[in-house]
Amino acid sequence: MKEICLLIFCLFSIRAAAQEDYKLAKTIDSLYEQDQSVQLKLKAMYERNAPQDSLKQQDSLKKAIYLRGAQFSKDIYGKFGYPTKKMVGEDASHHFFVLIQHADMDTSFQLAMLPILDKLSKKGDISRKDYAYLYDRVQRNTGGKQLYGTQPTYNEQGNLFDDKNNIIYPVDLADPEQVDKRRKEVGLEPIEEYYESILQMLGRPRTKTKQN
Asked: In angstroms, rounded to a whole number, what is the distance separating the alpha carbons of residues 37 and 51?
């Protein structure tokens, strides 16, 4: 009888934990959707040359949404720990990282999360790519050196390739010649392909023909 009661208790506990993880994933996904929505709207406003006062208003809203995401991220981490792929699924785990990545107003929080992401990603509990992006973000926000080149530097024309169509490496990138080796180690594509994809997303694709 005791064994049956214990089994029932364990089953209810597992079910309750699963429901809690599901709710947590939904909360994270909702915060992520708000994060992305405000960012995409601002991008669209820039593309249609919206008035400056409208752009400033939307940018302020974006910062407020990012701040809210950071605050919720702290609360979630404090209560549940870091949401791993096993806990909330791969998508929600990545979405949680994005909230941290956008917490630029709180670099101490980003810095505190960095060793957590490093440890968990090495164990396969979260994406190693997420760690690489946050590492570079923290370095840029604190005056350090990037390792993976995930935070680009645009020239005056808003490009990532120079007049001769050569890649413009970020000024804060350590040892650019080895960057693709480091990127491969964490599962990232070559930096040239990455920058091409950024320009494609921005609607100004790279011209492939090189000038001599």
From this structure: 19
- Report DSSP state, residue 212: -
Q: Is the pLDDT of residue 17 over 70?
A: no
Read off the tokens for 101: 């990545």
Condensed to tens digits (0 to 9), the pLDDT of residues 137-163 reads 999 999 999 999 999 999 988 899 998
Question: Can you read off the two tokens belonging to residue 52?
Answer: 């400056």
CB burial class (10 A; 0-12, 13-18, 19+) of residue 33? exposed
**Residue 167's beta-bridge partner residues?**
161
Q: Can you read off the two tokens belonging to residue 125?
A: 């509990």
Report the chain's mean pLDDT, rounded to a whole number: 90
pLDDT at 102 over 60: yes
For 92-155, the DSSP string reads: HHHHHHHHHHT-TT-HHHHHHHHHHHHHHHHTTSS-HHHHHHHHHHHHHHHT--BSS--S----
Rounded to the nearest 10 degrees, the angle between the axes of helix 128-142 and helix 90-101 is: 0
CB 119 within 8 A of CB 134: no
